[in-house]
Design goal:
Elements: H1 12-17, E1 51-52, E2 55-56, E3 61-64, H2 75-81, E4 88-91, E5 94-97, E6 100-102, E7 110-113, E8 121-125, H3 140-143, E9 147-149, E10 155-157, E11 160-163, E12 181-183, E13 188-191, E14 194-196, E15 202-204, E16 214-218, E17 221-224, E18 226-231, E19 234-238, E20 241-244, E21 256-261, E22 271-274, E23 277-280, E24 287-290, E25 304-308, E26 311-312, E27 335-339, H4 359-362, H5 367-371
Parallel strand pairs: 3-4, 4-7, 5-8, 6-9, 7-10, 8-11, 9-12, 10-13, 11-14, 12-15, 13-16, 14-17, 15-18, 16-19, 17-20, 18-21, 19-22, 20-23, 21-24, 22-25, 23-26, 25-27
Antiparallel strand pairs: 1-2
Amino acid sequence: MSSSHPRPPLSRRGFLTAGAGTAAALGLGPLAAPGALAATGRPARPFGRFGSPAARLTPRTLYVDPLGRGDHTSVRDAVTAATGSGRTLVLAPGVYRETVAVDATRTEATWIGASENPHDVVIVYDNAAGTPKPGGGTHGTTGSATTTVQAAGFTARWITFANDWLRADHPDITGTQAVAVKVQGDRSAFHHCRFLGHQDTLYADSMSLGVFARQYYSHCYAEGDVDFVFGRATAVFEHCRFRTLTRTDLASAPYGFVFAPSTAGANPRGYLVTRSRVTGEAPDGYYKLARPWVPSSDTTARPMLTVRDTRLGPGIDAVAPYANMSASFPWQDQRFAEYRNSGPGARITVPENRPQLTREQAESATRETHLGDWRPWKEGH
């Protein structure tokens, strides 16, 4: 773990109530001043150790700065300019209020938060599934994403991806899914990133049903309430923190579900959570660890989740940590398992409700078996 490991995250309530998209709400400090990085005392170098337009890290590097000291002031414009493969974007500290899409042609892209602290670089917007679209209709879950990544070989470091849409502000909207980032490309890696939202925060998915996209999340932070890590990717979450949020709109448990995998039946590997933590601000036992998502578009899905060597806080219902999304597809028929977890949310009080791997089975539930010949943890952080 590097010395730039994220500070304890600002509470989601503070992030939102201080005003959507403001620097103060995100704990960024006085970004309007073109001086030093927020709260670091370092000289005015918006791109840190990653060069500048006058001294590029590589010829294929572009610099983004909302104050105009880079090649572009928005991430979207930089992505538009970064055609082809192997492009790098260095993002100066700032709040980038926009939607961004990396299409499948922009392979092997790298995004770097220049301050090496994800609190300083935030890409945020506020669409929800039920938000009306210009020209008619609504965005839907996929269309609600602040950032969408379809290209293979994408890597992000030290960036916050957020969706700050709030149910309380839109009582007339029933489609409350609001995605911070949808990731579909194979070999997608996120190091020291944050994912902020409420329902459907992190959509770890693939481009199509027959594609088994591999993804890796290292030293990341994700928060939300309903199904806030979901999708059909083959994804490894290592040294990550998942934080469940409290809710004022519900009077009783459950408040939500951390994971909702939708792994294709033909895919031997779904979600693996290892050496991580699940914490929360909700009352004890008010969250389920997971529920299986069997989409109407793929009723042959067999959602897979393995949580191992992970601390589960008291917010997780230890007696019944899993629930059904649909009675037609009970969680017991899916591929849910645990191994050597700790904490009050991991206590085994009803063994049939907590399937455990044997030691032999656990030997094949590793990042290596999930990700095959791809070794993203060996990349420099």
